[in-house]
Amino acid sequence: MVSSPSTVDMAALTELALGLTPQRPITREKATLLAPEESAVSTTPPELDDDDRPGKVKMLHLELCENWGSPDVIGLAGLELLGHKSKVIDPATFTITSSSQSDPQKLLNGKNLTRSAEDMWLIPFDPKQHPTITINFHKPTTLTGISFWNYNSSPEMSYAGVRLFHIFINSRLAASNVLLRKAPGEFCSRLLS
What we know:
Helices cover about 10% and strands about 35% of the residues. It is mostly beta strands. The strands form two sheets. Strands 3-5-1-7-8 form a five-stranded antiparallel beta sheet, with no helix packed on it. Strands 4-2-6 form a three-stranded antiparallel beta sheet, with no helix packed on it.
């Protein structure tokens, strides 16, 4: 036997349940409300260990396509890879190589806000044959971001900084024609009024 709520309860429930649509009828047998603990649903995903996360990266490949106008060189001041919870990935967990003779290890020295050419990576540039940087992780790793610092030894040499590049992850194109901001050529930029 189905019991029906009184007309006073029905009017109150209709107003409570429908808000802006008072013409909509109640379609349940019994007028009961859910307890707060029954209606709460968590939308927060469960915490996963780094090894349980999908989208692991084994190889990251950067193809440097264009600089800011320097006719024969291209370079970067620094590079940082970000992992789970945007924490910096330890450079000891991967190897970095380039298509040129110059060792890109300088990109990982942590001296990113510098004007010292000795702390930056600069190589010959031919627009017909794009130089590359390849990072091989010792084990598949979660990669959530990449931080770049463009070449910045002087205002004139800032034109050697990378302008456009492609990102390949596990040999697949992940981002094409990524634009990097030109470095100011100074340690800091100041705007004075």
